[in-house]
Design brief:
Blueprint lengths: L2 H14 E3 L2 E3 L10 H7 L6 E4 L11 H8 L6 E7 L2 E6 L5 H4 L3 E6 L24 E9 L14 E5 L3 E7 L5 E6 L2 E5 L3 E7 L4 E4 L5 E7 L1 E8 L4 H13 L23 H16 L1 H12 L14 H9 L4 E3 L6 E4 L6 E5 L2 E4 L5 H9 L14 H12 L3 E3 L3
The structure holds succinic acid and cobalt (II) ion (CO).
């Protein structure tokens, strides 16, 4: 970034923000939040409140929809309640709401983006963060005075306020005392807030990993948590182990050319270096790149393969007839353009689809997640593209756009 650009960013920032931890979006111009500034000054570094990031916010879902989802066995949901100072956690599927919803209670539903297409626009303002980092959209409904208590998450989160009001307090990372007021509830004690704000519909609080936070509901409220993921070494090692288990790159240690050493008990540092190198070679190999790309695109999307699968011919005819397709709820593809050691391929929920350079434009439209139809590109789609689309439709990852 050159000096002029830095100045412009600094000027924009100073003009738009009230102080170091609050942005106000100008209702007329929509200006105020700048993704460049956010990435430079806040992402993974410090929390920030973005007032009215969503202008005229209207909830795409309500507490009844959430309750419906929470009854489904495949949906990860829970109700956290506090009855006269005593915490309870009811894990979904929730069968008896009357018993679970006592005192001050919060209903939390994970992965709502995977079930409800209407929540997709909530993810839109955050699309400057790549698809693979996004984990899911959790939605919570909390009654007056309720909250899940002060806690620390290991992941970045944008807390988008829907209807109602909530007071968020966010503190600095430190070695806080952990408490478990219920076996399924991890809270912390005694943080001093650096942010203490009441949010309303359309406001957003960004909380980086490790920053304690506590949201107390002031008016019955919906909160949309756009949560991110960041694999740790154990998770990466699991991808490596899975690849090796399939037989790819699972070479064995060899030591031809060994020389006599002073004592057989002595460990030769070059043996340790060779063992490390053996693993480094496996990591640097193409197989591990593919294993990583598959893991990065893995979203735990529920698979609903079509009962009556469609043929390539049917899809081709429909495509030619101008019919439009869209990704199923929560499906977020990844794409690589064949450069810098990466293959030219599309990745959807852990599956790879290779394509030729001439197909790049069509596959980019597919990966963008926007409405897909014959008008999207000038060139006619290739057999490979239509074949991939057919597979995606049959696996339940893409579907017909309903008019
Ligand atoms: C909530 O929605 O009540 C909790 C969200 C969070 O603190 O991560
Ligand atoms: Co949290």
């Amino acid at each position: 970034m050159n000096k002029d650009q830095t100045n412009t960013l600094a000027e924009k920032r100073d003009a738009m923000r009230k102080n170091d931890n609050t942005y106000f979006i100008d209702a007329q111009t929509g200006q105020g939040f700048d993704a460049d500034i956010f990435l430079r000054d806040y992402w993974q570094q410090k929390p920030v409140v973005i007032k009215q990031l969503f202008e005229d916010f209207s909830d795409p879902i309500d507490e009844n929809d959430l309750a419906g989802l929470a009854q489904e066995p495949e949906v990860d949901a829970r109700i956290i309640s506090n009855v006269q100072g005593k915490w309870h956690v009811e894990q979904g599927p929730i069968a008896d709401f009357v018993t679970a919803c006592q005192g001050k209670w919060t209903l939390l539903v994970q992965g709502v983006d995977k079930y409800v297409q209407d929540v997709t626009p909530i993810l839109e303002p955050f699309s400057f963060i790549p698809n693979w980092r996004l984990d899911d959209l959790m939605v919570s409904y909390a009654t007056n005075g309720a909250g899940v208590g002060a806690h620390i998450d290991q992941y970045d989160v944008f807390l988008v306020q829907g209807k109602g009001k909530r007071r968020w307090r966010v503190g600095k990372p430190a070695d806080y005392k952990e408490v478990f007021p219920h076996p399924k509830l991890r809270q912390i004690e005694g943080f001093e807030p650096v942010i203490d704000v009441v949010v309303e519909a359309g406001d957003v609080v960004y909380v980086p990993p490790g920053w304690p936070h506590d949201g107390a509901t002031i008016e019955d409220s919906l909160t949309y948590s756009v949560g991110y993921r960041a694999p740790d070494n154990l998770q990466l090692a699991e991808s490596l182990a899975m690849m090796l288990d399939k037989g790819a790159h699972n070479y064995r240690f060899t030591d031809a050319g060994r020389t006599i050493q002073r004592s057989r008990a002595t460990v030769n540092p070059s043996d340790v270096a060779a063992l490390k190198q053996q693993l480094i070679d496996a990591i640097n190999g193409e197989d591990f790149t593919l294993a990583l790309l598959e893991a990065m695109s893995e979203q735990g999307i529920p698979e609903y393969p079509l009962d009556n699968s469609v043929t390539l011919e049917q899809v081709s005819n429909e495509f030619a007839a101008g019919i439009s397709f869209i990704p199923a709820p929560g499906v977020r593809a990844l794409i690589c353009d064949g450069k810098r050691g990466l293959p030219r391929a599309l990745y959807v929920n852990g599956s790879e689809f290779r394509f030729a350079k001439s197909d790049q434009e069509w596959f980019e439209v597919l990966a963008s997640g926007s409405v897909l139809n014959a008008m999207c590109c000038q060139d006619a789609p290739s057999f490979t593209f239509l074949d991939t689309l057919t597979t995606l439709i049959n696996n339940g990852y893409w579907e017909w756009l309903e008019n």
